[in-house]
Q: What sequence folds into this?
């Protein structure tokens, strides 16, 4: 029985890890399920939503943490989608989420290519000046 429970937790974590384009840490997903579950249960039992302080006290969280969970989007957003605060009537270029959160650091492919080019340049220079050649009096061919 214990093995099945542990296996179920492992499957749940794997689904949580692979289930989003940009993954949330597992503890954040767990907190979101806990808060939303509390809200649904409270609504069904008392026919009203709990207040933020009420939910925070019952869940052992701060009101800010509960509010962040409740206002967070449930579905992942495309980086190419217009930013939620963009106003098309402004006449400016549309701003996408990618413009705001795009990482300017080189991709692994770009780093690999740069390393290969640098190594090829070093090799060509060493051959041109005769470094690493058995016959140091003549350039390597």
A:
């Amino acid at each position: 029985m214990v093995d099945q429970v542990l296996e179920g937790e492992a499957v749940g974590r794997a689904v949580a890890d692979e289930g989003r384009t940009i993954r949330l840490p597992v503890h954040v997903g767990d907190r979101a399920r806990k808060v939303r579950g509390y809200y649904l249960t409270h609504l069904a039992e008392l026919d009203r939503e709990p207040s933020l302080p009420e939910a925070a006290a019952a869940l052992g969280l701060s009101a800010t943490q509960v509010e962040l969970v409740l206002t967070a989007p449930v579905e992942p957003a495309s980086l190419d989608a217009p930013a939620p605060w963009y106003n098309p009537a402004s006449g400016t270029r549309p701003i996408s989420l990618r413009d705001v959160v795009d990482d300017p650091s080189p991709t692994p492919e770009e780093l690999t290519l740069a390393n290969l080019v640098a190594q090829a340049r070093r090799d060509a220079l060493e051959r041109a000046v005769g470094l690493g050649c058995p016959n140091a009096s003549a350039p390597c061919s």
User: Anything to note?
Assistant: The radius of gyration is 28 Å.
